[in-house]
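Notes to self, FAD/NAD(P)-binding domain-containing protein:
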Amino acid sequence: MTTFVPHPHLLDSPRHRDWPRYPAATLPDPPRWPPEIADVVIVGAGPAGLAVATALWHVGVPDVVVIDRDGEPVSRFLARIDRLDQRVLRSPYEHHPGVEGYRDCELRDFARLHWSLLTPVERREIRMSQAGHRSVVPVDVFEAYCRHTSAIHQVPQRLWRGEVSRLDVGEDRVLVRGTDFTVQARHVVLCLGEERRDAPDHWWTGGPPAGVDYWDEPAGEPPDRQIVVGAGLTAAHLIRNALDSGTRVDWVLRKDSERYQCSDVNASFFRAEGRSRFDGHRGPAPWAERLALMAAQRRASVMFEFRPLLEAAEADGRLTVHRGREIHAVSDKCVELDRGEVVTGDRITLALGTVPSIGTGLLPDELVGARDGWPDLDERTLAFRRAPRVFAAGAAAAMVLGPASRNIDGHRVATARIAGVIAAARTREGAGARN
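result:
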């Protein structure tokens, strides 16, 4: 039997190449403020927000306003990736922020069109994906594709920089309020993504001690010795970057061992049979069963490509791994483990994962209906049960669509469902108005 071992060179894909721009039609720049009335407001222009805006364009809903804190498609997503110097996505070529059921230029086709810009390693990934084997996408290719997708679906003409502070939900309208704007919308789609998971309160008193930071915060000059806490892909990138700069690293794992795997969830959850374990034809699975599935599937893991790098660093003493250790306390330059062990370093970086943003703070708590950290969504429409004109796409839909909803491919599934519901409602409301 032939065993495929991914090569670490895949982690060195170049960044910020000069990709040809799609010759989009010349349109006037949007006004400074969003319009006061719209059919749909999308909150967030990350991969999920881009997918929703694109889908609504295809189903004939042109009156769309996208509001994003950075004012650019996928900007925050890419900024986080670049902070880690991450060069490839975990997602394969068939997972991209396109639209289910419509013949757009898909991500693999886009990469093949720009074959001359790809490295030999990247070209090999394309060939593997065409043959049905596992392959992953360079960040540079993904960014260029998102820019292309945004342009051909006229997303920039519908996108405004702004911070949404509150949603006031009425019977037939939702008021989307920001610091200096208000938009009245028939429907709102929340594409809020995920935020970092903070450390447990008992690790310290008050805020993080000096010398302790999180993975998404700016880092200073490389230290002589760094402690990285976390078991996932973010931790692996932090470790690799530190090792490349000559830093000695202590890696603290609360699990007994590292977990190397292709995807962060079982591949079956990207298919209909996997999603049916959450919202099957006979009705949704019991809540406790869904919680157990999420806990089992969303475990921290690292791409296979890191394995030879990390094992070599541990063998030659540049990396020390503390496996299966609970953390009792964290202080300036010191992590106190169980059994009395103390690990010291010049910098401590925490990579504890992320938690989904579910609309808390934008909607009243009673409308979010949060349970175990998840919103109360209708399994058929992905609308909030107590606010049926407000939908959730992306990570917030995980208890309906399963763990893959937090991945780019899951965004496509959520998007198809939400866009279909909005288009049908628009048709009904238009017919009612004519009658």
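- The mean pLDDT is 89.
- Residues 408-434 form the longest helix (27 residues).
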